[in-house]
Amino acid sequence: MPITDEMIQTATRELYSRSLRKVPEDAKEGLRAAMRTESNELARRTLDLQLKSAELAERKDRFVCSDSGVPTYFVKIGSKVELGCDLKASIRRGYEELVDTIEPPLLKHVTNPLTQERGYHGKDMPIVSYDFESGADYIEMVCSPKALGSGRWAALELFTFPSLEQIETYVLDVAIKAGAQHCPPVVMGVGIGGSFDHCASLAKKQTLRPIGQVNPEPILAQMEERLKSAVNALGFGPMGTGGDTTVLGVHIDYSSGHGFTPVAVCFNCWINRRTSVKIWNDGRMEWGE
Amino acid sequence: MSLREHDLTLPIGQDAIKELRAGDLVYLSGEIFATAGLPTHDRLLRCIDGQEELPFDMRNGALFHLGSLNEEAEDGSLRIVYMNPTTSTRFNGHMPRLIPGLGLRMTGGKGGLSAESARAMAEAGCVYLGFLGGGAEIITAAIRKVTGIGWPEMISHYRIARIEVERLGPLTVGIDAHGNSIYDTTLEAAAGRREEILARMRTQREGT
């Protein structure tokens, strides 16, 4: 049985809707762990309030944040998938159905950068990137709605044969520049190497990696630890009123490349919006965070 | 040290505002004004320049950077479905004039405002209150009544909503009326620690 238009539309709608209402379990666990180690009393109050906000939104099936951002999806197509629809068109239809029917309704955040006109629709919406997975008989979709609060602090710079020290200094400087504008404690995603576009994509995908997962590359696992304690030592704290908890994790990936080495950094705010689904040829759908 | 908490009611006078210190917590009752629109702030500046009429008199009041889904029902009743703060630093260019121009005692949202705004606040007797970003349900739960919507021709979160709230909070005094800004202090402290942090990372790298 091939994967149908209806299944893709349902996945597109549900992923976005769920990501607005539920803070992932590992992010909540990260906040709870921070409550135990945070030395600043005001920071502990804020962490507690964040957990309360997450619980309340989940229980009442409402949005955690009023800014639903713009929809971005990462789609991975298994090489053994039987596709019974025009995938791109199905995703677009699913998104358009969502913005017309979601309850409560969304605010109009999709902006034409040339005219500042705002609405639900626009050129290239939703933003989707496609990839393949060898041997898999499923499609995996990941949704990450992105808003200005944490979105605007992402940065990328090109270096030539940088040392680890240069890379880490750059990441720290991006963190200093962002301050607490991105609603901390955040997850920082870092990409190193590859090309301009690939590096940015690596960084973005790292913000979606579950908190607490150890990096399989030993050099990066150590770099993640160093940068996490370095950024937390800056002292911005939850919502920027001071404290030891500015990041819940720094997640890094790399790609081989040429001597010009891009380094990209981006952020996901404390609610860590991300949802995923696997859709199998036999029609099964497995939802994840 | 335990945190100082204040229960305040709007409209509010300068004396009560001057009691507040950066880092205190506030629960707020009475009428507030809320908007998240950049074009709204441009329009407010035109109002204080006398080019347009203000929809509301905000003197001794609170204008917060809050985005809301607000709507007018067929029977004319107003309601807010949800409300949450937006990034205040987007309005750094507006607030130094709007604070004295509108006669505000409170402003707020998330992320704080620039040092220039903090100076305007100290001169005018105004504070900045920090809301929890991603606190929509907590913030919305404090709404008692919507008493007016200014500029309804704009999209929902650009309008100015006048809202009666009860114990809205906890909100953090991020910038007080004495020139103290938690946001500036933390930013300066972070920049000050940069060299020491980099040196520590260097030692850690050499140890591996």
Tell me what the structure shows:
The complex is a heterodimer of chains A (289) and B (208). Chain A is of the alpha+beta class and 289 residues long. Chain A contains eight helices and eleven strands. The longest helix of chain A is centred in the first third of the chain and has 20 residues, at 41-60. Chain B has six helices and eight strands. The longest helix of chain B is centred in the C-terminal third of the chain and has 26 residues, at 182-207. Chain B is an alpha/beta fold and 208 residues long. Chain B has a five-stranded mixed beta barrel. The termini of chain B are far apart.
Please give the radius of gyration of chain B in angstroms: 19 Å
Q: Overall mean pLDDT score of chain B?
A: 96
**CATH-defined fold name of chain B:** fumarase
Unreliable residue stretches of chain B: none
Order of helices and strands of chain A: HHHEHEEEEHEHEHHEEEE
| SSE class of chain A | alpha+beta
Q: What's the end-to-end separation of chain B, in Å?
A: 39 Å
Number of structurally distinct domains of chain B:
1
* Mean pLDDT metric of chain A: 96
Number of domains of chain A: 2
Could you tell me the radius of gyration of chain A in angstroms? 19 Å
How would a textbook summarize the main sheet of chain B?
5 strands, mixed, barrel
Please mark out the parts of chain A with pLDDT under 50 across 5 or more consecutive residues, or reply none: none
Number of strands of chain A: 11
Main sheet strand line-up of chain A: 4-1-5-10-11
How far apart the termini of chain A lie comes to 26 Å
